[in-house]
Amino acid sequence: MDGDVFEKITRDDFIHGQFPENFMWGAASAAYQIEGAWNEDGKGESIWDHYCHLEPSPIRNHDTGDVACNSYHYYKKDVEILKELGVGFYRFSLSWPRILPNGTLSCINEKGIDYYNKLIDELVSSGVQPMITLYHWDLPQTLQTHYGGWLNDGIQDFFNDYARLCFQRFGDRVKYWITLNEPWEVAIPGYCRGETAPGHRDMAKGAYIAAKNLILSHAKAWHTYDKEFRATQHGYISITIDSSWPESFTASNEDQMASERFLAFHLDLFAHPIFVNGDFSNIVQHQVLKHCQAAGLESRLPRFSEEERKIVKGSHDFFGLNFYRCQLVKHKSSLNGMKTPQSFDKDRETEEFLHSSWPRTDATWLRMTPFGMRRILKFIKENYGNPRIIITENGCTQAGEHDAIDENALHDYFRVDWYRRYLNEVLKAIKLDGVDVAGYMAWSLMDNMEWNDGYSLRFGLYRVDFEDPQRKRTPKLSARYYKKVIQDNGFLA
Ligand code: GBH
Q1: In angstroms, what is the span from residue 6 Cα to ligand 1's centroid?
Q2: Please, which pLDDT band fits residue 337 given cuts at 50, 70 and 90?
Q3: Which of 80, 149, 228, 287 has its CA 20 to 30 A from that of 402?
Q4: Class of 22-242+304-321+369-486 per CATH?
């Protein structure tokens, strides 16, 4: 580490300059986190409705998304603030059970479709282009209860049916589609560790089975768009993948290999099949097999058939990236034969932690580490065939913000600094490393229901007053700052 000390001082130096012409500036949200109206107008229950209503509640302060920002009723307020921000794009997600209450075409909820039509029309007439995420974690509960959700390969066709319906109903006005948001967060916390909805725990196999179904679901929907809609609708469709950027704990060969493994099991777990060759990488195959063999077992990793590899490989129009943070990564051997229970977390043979010098936020997992942005962008350029990249999420909570009152709550200097630094690293990636970054969506447009952390973490450019029945949205300083960066299309000298 010592050799790097000087490099670390200069690493964050600021550059002036502008983003490419027509750079896509936007802000993002997700259905469960903002809509509320969880059981209104025929909407079905989602796994997040179900999970938040469990007793005892697994959510901080027993919060739920029952009302959230009430965007189902106040979507016009959302469009107002998007206009005020001056963004060209709004990335939001559709609630699958609002459109298909039990997940399948057997029942189509026209009222749910009306809601999204009204939102899309309001956006388009306001000069804001919709970018739609089909799945941001709120699976219809029926599909979970009756089929086991993402663990059942039947989900691939259910998702494809749902996607086709959305292209049919909304595709005339929507040119950017994202099939799945952060499949890693679905597969690992959702179906392996059991830490988020649906809370299914299967350390040995859950992650891989869900991952394979997520990848194939994405790929089938991509082909449906490609074959049936692209020629008339002229849009773009891809997937959004999230990952931390690993910084090796030491410069040792061991720790550097551990960083490689970390990426293989995070970013690359989904990017490798889709952007490289239709299959899990050799590192993943080797690591899983090695742990199984040590215990005298066959590999737990499901394989892709030749037919499946063909439809997965190349199923993308751009690389959707959600990037938040770096993690320090260290080698950790976990080969202990029969004594070690088989587990996704052990397959990686890594240990991760945060550097004490990285500035804190309100979220224990999140520290300000902008340099990782430039590095992960360069990695994507070099490893996935220089794709066009759209950063579909980046943003933060600010330490102490939740309890701040009066103007303190709106003077989010830390968040201003965050956007300034992370965006500057994006600019460096474009100007200095030649990475093809086409757009950036701030997470989030407004404070919202932050999953297991409820309303205790605020990620918004706009503050939402959750005590107010009208859910008033008020711009924070960061909203004004972001607006200025958009107006200048970068950082003027
Ligand atoms: C994104 O996930 C989501 O797409 C978005 O919906 C969310 O609001 C946003 O980030 C902010 O979190 O508490 O230690 O168990 C980013 C990946 C996955 C990071 C879950 C936080 C919880 C870690 N997130 N993780 S912990």
Answers
A1: 32
A2: low
A3: 80
A4: alpha beta
Distance separating alpha carbons of residues 226 and 221, to the nearest angstrom? 8
Would residue 393 show up in a list of annotated catalytic residues for this protein? yes
Candidates 45, 393, 401, 450; catalytic one = 393
Closest ligand 1 atom to the C-alpha of 443?
9
The count of other CB atoms within 10 Å of the CB of residue 484 is 12
Nearest residue by C-alpha to atom 18 in ligand 1: 185
Nearest CA to ligand 1 atom 23: 365
The one catalytic residue in 35, 182, 308, 349 is 182
DSSP conformation letters of 260-314: HHHHHTTHHHHHIIIIIISS--HHHHHHHHHHHHHTT----PPPPPHHHHHHHTT
Question: Rounded to the nearest whole angstrom, what is the distance from the C-alpha of residue 454 to the centroid of ligand 1?
Answer: 12
- Counting from 1 in the atom list of ligand 1, the atom nearest the Cα of 137 is 6
pLDDT of residue 3: 52
pTM of the model: 0.97
Least confident of 5-14, 41-50, 128-137, 325-334: 5-14
pLDDT of amino acid 486: 98
The DSSP code for 163 is H
Residue whose CA is closest, atom 19 of ligand 1? 365
| Three-state DSSP class for residue 91 | strand
For 363-422, write each residue's pLDDT tens digit: 999 999 999 999 999 999 999 999 999 999 999 999 999 889 888 899 999 999 999 999
Contact, 314 vs 176, CB < 8 A?
no
- The structural domains of the chain, with segments of one domain joined by +, span 22-242+304-321+369-486
Query: Residue 406 has what pLDDT?
Result: 82
User: Residue 390 — φ and ψ, nearest 5°?
Assistant: -115, 120
CA distance to 202, 346, 455, per residue, from 339 (Å) = 17, 12, 41
**Of 366, 64, 30, nearest in space to 182 by CA:** 30
Q: Does 338 score more than 60 pLDDT?
A: no
CA-nearest residue for atom 12, ligand 1, is 450
Where b means 16+ CB within 10 Å and e means fewer, 109-142 reads beebbebbeebbebbeeeebbbbbbbbbbbbbbb
What gap in Å lies between CA 459 and CA 455, rounded to an integer? Answer: 10
Atom of ligand 1 nearest to the CA of 195: 15
Residue whose token pair is 């049936």: 228
pLDDT in tens, 343-367: 999 999 999 999 999 999 999 999 9
